[in-house]
Amino acid sequence: MKAREIRPGVSWVGAIDWDRRLFDELIPLPNGTSYNSYLVRGSEKTALIDTADPAKSETLLAQLEAVETLDYLIIQHVEQDHSGSAPLVLDKYPDIQIISSPKAKTMIADHLGIPEARIHAVEDRESLSLGDRTFEFIHAPWVHWPETMLTYLKEEKLLFTCDLFGSHLATDELFSGDGSHVCEAAKRYYAEIMMPFAHLIKGHLEKLSSFDIEMIAPSHGPVHNNPGWILDAYSHWVHDAPKNLALIPFTSMHESTALMVDYLIEALNDRGVHVHSFHMSKTDLGEYAIHLVDAATVIFGTPTVLVGPHPSIVLAAYLTAALRPKLQNAAVIGSYGWAGKAAEKTQQLCEQLKVTWLDPVFAKGAPTQETYAQLNRLADEVASRHKGLESGE
Ligand code: FEO
């Protein structure tokens, strides 16, 4: 794909990765992704913002073929899907100077083997002139690593944000427009990448509210040429109270846990609680993550394997805790053959979740009438705790 102008003198020079299906060997990418770099030409200097994943280095370099001189390479974030082609850019432009945050300076040396002497660290709100164009750098730690910064191009009211406001979406549509074809991918991306840092994103949004922003250019997915919708969406995701939604990530080996989950779904529905269950041996983890953005309650459903929870529920519990959603309540239900501690061990995996743990419900073997009575009591408790929450539909 050729360079594509997004503003006068500002071009997208990215790479679309149509076929990538997994990120970090963990995160499903059902729609592929893109690695967006941007070329900004001033009257005196030219800068490149971010590079591309090493797998797409050739695509980036092909787009830079006609660019004779590059003065600056701005590395907003050191993760290799954006910085990984930097060594090749340095080979092509031996006099180029790297611009980064102070924290990124050592990380660039550590991760990419680039000497710190090649890097100029900029402070928060420091400016850099390209002649008739001026950048202002905005430190924004933890979106998505501690070193990240954003770059504001004053004359174009254009904010470059690297991971923040991105979406894993391979598309030839350069702009997100009203967001209708991007919002779901952006929410999935928020859930998987940004949600653990929601408490810090609140501060970043507050800081950005003093900037006049007409366009947002992230380094994954389409450019936001009408950025109001993505700013509003982030504001809702980080600030809103959880909704009347209970999630049941579960797996079942001999149907006992599945019977309990089916019963609990109906019991919760009967009490006005919206439910989404996820069979963890079959589901896309991203789908589960998206629903965690809004859920008030999670109920893990697990058979007992070697005293503890099934490994797929170990993963679900670990990820739930790591993503730090706005959950308020949690519980564990399931079954065991002769003995076990699946509930306690699942709870231990979620120690960092600030939730109220409701009484677990476990059946020895197949569920009995007493099991179903306990599930009814659990559903009563969840419904009571969800009173007053907005619809989770
Ligand atoms: Fe898209 Fe944190 O890298």
Account of the 3D structure:
The structure is a single chain. The chain is α/β, with parallel strands linked by helices and 393 residues long. It has two domains: 4-239, 4-Layer Sandwich (Metallo-beta-lactamase, Chain A); 245-381, Rossmann fold, CATH 3.40.50.360. The protein is built from twelve helices and 23 strands. A seven-stranded mixed sheet has the order 1-2-7-8-9-10-11. Strands 17, 18, 19, 20, 21, 22 and 23 form a seven-stranded mixed sheet that branches. A hairpin with a 2-residue loop joins β1 and β2. α5 (183-194) packs across α7 (228-239). The longest helix is centred in the C-terminal third of the chain and has 18 residues, at 369-386. The two termini are 40 Å apart. The model has no long low-confidence stretch (mean pLDDT 96). Bound molecules: MU-OXO-diiron (FEO). The site of MU-OXO-diiron has 7 residues, from α2.
Descriptive tags:
393 residues, alpha/beta, Metallo-beta-lactamase, Chain A, seven-stranded mixed beta sheet, 23 strands, elongated, binds MU-OXO-diiron
